[in-house]
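Inverse folding, one chain.
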């Protein structure tokens, strides 16, 4: 990853619900984070990853097809080595345990507020820096 203690991570938002993705986009911009864009299909995410190399991808877990969303998050983390923050409306114990097995950089539950979004990004930044040595 290209981030360091003095730079802010460039973030890509991957979500199927435009209203939620737009809310995240606005909140991130208000916090000063550079946002690469919003994608709602894996093909678009992969093209964006190739062209812009985001530092973090926020993945909104699609409630209708959560398994596919989790598979996409796993692909981004394992194949492309991109830190992923998961955004989930399902906060059941079973769901949280399933998400923890994926080992995301952070999990943000919906509904979320700016503070929880910022906390998730800060946790992710700290993990990226610690993994970099």
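Residues assigned per position:
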């Amino acid at each position: 990853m290209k981030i360091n203690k003095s730079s802010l991570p460039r973030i890509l938002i991957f979500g199927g619900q435009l209203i939620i993705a737009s809310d995240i986009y606005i909140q991130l911009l208000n916090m000063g984070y550079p946002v690469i864009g919003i994608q709602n299909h894996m093909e678009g995410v992969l093209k964006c990853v190739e062209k812009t190399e985001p530092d973090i991808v926020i993945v909104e877990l699609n409630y209708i097809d959560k398994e596919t969303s989790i598979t996409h998050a796993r692909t981004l983390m394992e194949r492309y080595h991109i830190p992923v923050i998961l955004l989930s409306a399902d906060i059941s114990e079973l769901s949280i345990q399933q998400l923890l097995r994926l080992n995301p950089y952070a999990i943000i539950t919906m509904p979320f507020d700016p503070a929880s979004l910022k906390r998730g990004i800060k946790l992710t930044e700290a993990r990226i820096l610690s993994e970099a040595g």
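The first strand starts at residue 11 and ends at 14. The chain has one domain: 11-132.
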